[in-house]
Amino acid sequence: xxxxxxxxxxxxxxxxxGKPNVGKSTLLNHLVGEHLAAVSPRPQTxxxxxxxxxxxxxTELLLVDAPGVHQPRGLLHRAMVEAATSALAEVDxxxxxxxxxxxxxxxxxxxxxxxxxGQAHRDLLRAVKKAGKPVVLVLTKIDLVERPKLLPIIDxxxxxxxxxxxxxxxxxxxxxxSGLVGVVRQYLPEGPPLYPEEQMTDASERALxxxxxxxxxxxxxxxxxxxxxxxxxxxxDEQERESDRGPGLVRIEATxxxxxxxxxxxxxGKGGERLKEIGTEARKRLEKLLGCRVWLGxxxxxxxxxxxxxxxxxxxxxx
Length: 319
Ligand code: GDP
Ligand code: MG
What we know:
The chain is an alpha/beta fold. It has helices spanning 24-32, 74-87, 119-129, 147-160, 180-185, 205-220, 261-268, 273-290, 310-315, and strands at 10-18, 50-56, 59-65, 93-99, 135-140, 165-168, 230-237, 249-258, 293-302. It contains 9 helices and 9 strands. The strands form 2 sheets. Strands 2-3-1-4-5-6 form a 6-stranded mixed sheet, with helices on both faces. The protein has a 3-stranded mixed sheet with strand order 7-8-9. Helix 6 (205-220) packs antiparallel against helix 8. It is globular and about 55 Å long. It binds guanosine-5'-diphosphate and magnesium ion. Residues 24-25, 37, 45-46 line the site of magnesium ion.
């Protein structure tokens, strides 16, 4: 018997779009069920596009996580915003993420005319509309909103824009999250899955290694330091990955590129303590992902002005 397409099987691309820090990467990780994308409380943690593959019976949802859209300053930023906006043209549906919640200090029913949606969102949505794709509003972080306040918020958004759907959820607690796939499904074209069953992402293990190290830089260093860092993977040695005796081993060598000598000192920390912590945490994540032991060697190199160096950005896959 020939394997036939499950009736009504659908597969397609959805872009996670929105301001930095709304929870795009957290939602991707939650729906894929694996920590793939870097998450931190700081904006602009996500620098490159990453595909997360979500499966439910009859549905393959290909989630595109891109850097958040912000005012670009410099070559690196322009490349990041370009990555987000160019993706708009290539997807079947746009998931526009915004934090549910009232502007600071405002209260529903206070009688004051408050724009819950806000001008920045209105401007962004106008830009999104030009792509001509269905836009589903995903109101994120509902764990931070008192339930009675949620309905008027949803109403305000509904009036602001012609959304195909509006869907509130919390990617952190998982509240209401899995149902999103069923909603988005309607906007995907019919067709068989595009990726093999076991695949979770289009990113290589090498690229994820760099992503995990960068995530720790965002979590463990302060102020402007993480924004001026990049990670290059110098070696990814799998010779001992398949081993007859006990768990295998992957050896990874990576260089953390920083903009200034003072940043190098911060990344290293006292007696190299911080770099060690960064390495330990990144290694733990990698061991989980690769399913084997990982040896991770980290180096720090100062390259003044690297964010404006086209050749280096391209070498790092950032342009
Ligand atoms: P991105 O820049 O849009 O990709 O945002 P991230 O996924 O990196 O998340 C930014 C911050 O918001 C992180 O500290 C997350 O832990 C936090 N966050 C994301 N989703 C939620 C949520 O549903 N509830 C709460 N309370 N925090 C969230
Ligand atoms: Mg992100």
